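Appendix B. Chain record.
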Amino acid sequence: MKPVHSQLPKGARIYLPDEAARKRYVEGRLLDVFARWGYREIVTPTFEFADVLAMGTDLGVQESMFKFVDRETGRMLALRADITPQIARVVATRLRDEPKPVRLAYVTNVFRHDEPQMSHYREFYQAGVELIGLEKPEAEVEVIAMTIEGLRALGLDRFQIDLGHPDFFRGLLEEASADTARHRALRDALARKDASTLERLVRELSPPPHVAEALLALPTLFGREIVLERAGRYAQNPRSTRALANLAEVYRLLRIYGLADSVLLDLGEVRGFDYYSGLYFEAYVSGFGAALAGGGRYDDMLGRFGYDCPAVGFAFDIARALAIMEHQQVPVELPGPDFFIIDFTAEKTAALSLARRLRDLGASVARDIISRGLEESVEYARAQRVHHVLVAGSPRTAAGELLTLDLRRGGERTLTVAEVLADPAKCFEGVGGAGHV
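Structure tokens predicted for this chain:
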């Protein structure tokens, strides 16, 4: 018999049961936040025709797509590398006549061939929302507030939201009248916080003095509300002026929400330049170098599908959330079966009847169907994080009786099979209700 090769393809990952439970916990907490804000879940296909996905996907992301051929049509298919273009197309085609704004939420996976700095995976799990049809600053504030609520729902602390606006930089570039290559070089220097290269590029570009001063000041335009005042001195074009006005209004509304203390303004951050049409943000947690969540305004996206409509959204990176929660030692209660039934009788009638009755009331029930001693079975139950062990046919009980062990709180009782079948809720707190037993 040939040996089984267990190596996974590069970039793939398995979530073992405990890891999967933590992952579901994170996704469930975030979906709960989204639902409380009035967002409805949408599910999109994992793969589509590559040329359709490309319509709403930037060139850099297109190049990272996994592609394969459709055997029926011969057309090229692609795994989605970003869900936002899919949702934009759905709204532009299927939900165009829906009353605005449209609030949609998702938990999904995306696939990219590139390898981000903080991870070597090529399948990424995300949870996020899209708010479509609302152009007012209240839209950006809503998604920022939801991001902060999501961070808190995951039990995370020591976080901050970095808030920027690419249009402030775009306005300066327009004033500088530089070519595309020079624009990109300036952006790369800003992204690296490379002051010496930035100075050289500005010197070579030789823009008007106030533009040169503004470009050189960009890396320092970082902090609290005072940044708006400082940046105002450099905003001498309509585009930069509008960007600052938008940031100021968003910041004002965040103060009303009581969230301004969690936000830092950063006008020198340009990583959202190609994707976002307006304000964008990233969420960081102390001690972790990569953004946990990010989003912003992408008003141009739906226009690619023939429907001009404003939109804003954000997404959490689930794997990063799990890593940060582990680092901060955020407790996550991992579920185990509510009941574990051990039946030493020959006919097994008690085990089958009890399991059916308890499951009908919503409890989770596992049975011990391996022949072994009681202590071994109880140790197995502890390892599975079982709450209650029910033992039929124990030498310590009479016929028709159960020995019940509470593995979480400790203690044991003797009950009859008949009384448990008649009224499980009376015997075990929480059975048949909303809580865990």
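Further analysis of this model is presented in Appendix C.
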